[in-house]
Amino acid sequence: MSRIRNQWRKKFQSVSLTDYDSAEEDGEFVYLDEQQQDELISSLREENEIINKRYKVAFTTISLLQTPIFLFHPALYYDGADAGHFLTFSALTSFLVSAYVIHKTPVSPSEFAAVSPSIHIFGKQLTQQQLLIVLNAILSSLIAVLAFIKFSPLLGIDYLWFSPLGCLLSVLLVRGWMQEGDVDGLEKFRYKYKGA
Fold first, then answer.
1. Is residue 18 part of a domain?
2. Average pLDDT, stretch 147-165?
3. What DSSP string describes the chain?
4. How many domains would you assign to the chain?
């Protein structure tokens, strides 16, 4: 949200958000006509899309860069034990789901509602993307708990089993930042400009 305020201040330096009331009383307040409102919202939307694409590319890359460690590091198989293979497969699945969630699922609530049908589970209405996030959280938590139980006390490379959970938490944090800068909420603040 602060990014939107800073953009507003940069475009219209004569108007301060803190002096809103006094400026309106003095008649000094600058009103934007519909075309100026459209230009401001479209420029903010374009800037927001560019920043969101950077976030998506960066965190998709971070999620996928961890997969070769689980594919090729011999210590993560733990002597061919079935639990080691299950944990490795689960960690790879969690990384891929986290990469999918950050890269492909929509961020803004309007896109979210338009794209995906809802599913009713335990009396709650969830979209398919929300269900995917919940299932990935359960999977990555299960990986961390099983790794802690099986390999306790944890030594060196054993801490990598917590990386799917860390990856998911960072993806959720970034999605929260991306939703915070959602420009679609500005549409409800439009007003009709009444000129002379």
1. no
2. 82
3. -HHHHHHHHHH-TT--GGGHHHHHHHT-PPPP-HHHHHHHHHHHHHHHHHHHHHHHHHHHHHHHHTHHHHHH-GGGGTTT-HHHHHHHHHHHHHHHHHHHHHHHS--SHHHHHHH--EEEETTEEEEHHHHHHHHHHHHHHHHHHHHHHHHPSP-GGGGGGGHHHHHHHHHHHHHHHHHHT-GGGGGGG-------
4. 1
